[in-house]
Write a structure and sequence with these properties.
Blueprint (H helix, E strand, L loop, with lengths): L1 H25 E15 L4 E15 L5 E20 L2 E23 L2 E21 L4 E6 L7 E12 L4 E10 L9 E4 L4 E4 L7 E11 L2
Antiparallel strand pairs: 1-2, 1-11, 2-3, 3-4, 4-5, 5-6, 5-7, 7-8, 8-11, 9-10
Length: 217
């Protein structure tokens, strides 16, 4: 009897170990780094270039077609504008940095070719305006924390390719769905410059294009 219990116990441990190993094989970790072009829709200006870096986890379902992916990323966002200072137009940059948490539903179309979409929760961690350039190399900066909301919600769509050796590439666009400005038509006085944020749009939203490279473990 005791031998039967012992055999059953050993068999249960073996099954548990096998199940754990199978689940571990379906879960992958994916560090990635990439390039971003961001804008703030509703404000005049051109795109700001920056970087994004982070780590995601992908759960691949047994059919190897469907997957869920969630991650945490640091993303440099914002916009560039021309601001008049004295008798010159200088480059003004609104620098909004976010900690973004996307959750993707992913589908593998053919081999490593995949598409994905899902919501993204963003938390604003840095707001700064810099004004620089001109013949005299002017420079000014000021904090914009009181101008922008802390939270941002976006819809992300994109696609990528996963190589068998682990290397992957992705491109995606994040459509902001919430207003990022606390107030409209704002004028702030800095040490050596004035910044004006004016918009006629009711909702001012983020828009971010990203291209990434990473490795799936």
């Amino acid at each position: 009897m005791r031998n039967n219990y012992l055999k059953g116990f050993i068999l249960s441990l073996a099954l548990l170990a096998l199940t754990t190993q199978l689940h571990a094989q379906e879960l992958h970790f994916m560090p990635k780094v990439g390039f971003s072009l961001s804008t703030i829709m509703g404000l005049d200006g051109s795109a700001r270039s920056g970087a994004n870096v982070g780590l995601s986890g992908e759960y691949l379902f047994p059919n190897e077609r469907y997957a869920l992916e969630g991650g945490v990323y640091y993303s440099m966002q914002g916009i560039q504008q021309k601001q008049r200072y004295l008798d010159e137009y200088l480059t003004g940059t609104i620098k909004n940095d976010y900690i973004n948490i996307p959750i993707y539903a992913k589908y593998y179309l053919l081999k490593g070719l995949n598409v994905f979409a899902g919501p993204q929760f963003g938390f604003n961690v840095r707001n700064k305006f810099t004004l620089d350039g001109g013949q005299k190399k002017h420079y000014s900066s000021m904090n914009l924390d009181k101008v922008f909301h802390l939270f941002d919600f976006a819809l992300c769509i994109g696609g990528g390719y996963q190589f068998e050796n682990g290397l992957f590439f992705t491109v995606n666009y994040n459509f902001g769905l919430t207003d990022v400005l606390k107030e409209k038509d704002i004028q702030l006085e800095g040490e050596s410059a004035t910044i004006e944020i004016q918009t006629d749009d009711k909702t001012v939203r983020n828009g971010v294009f990203q291209a990434n490279i990473g490795w799936r473990f």
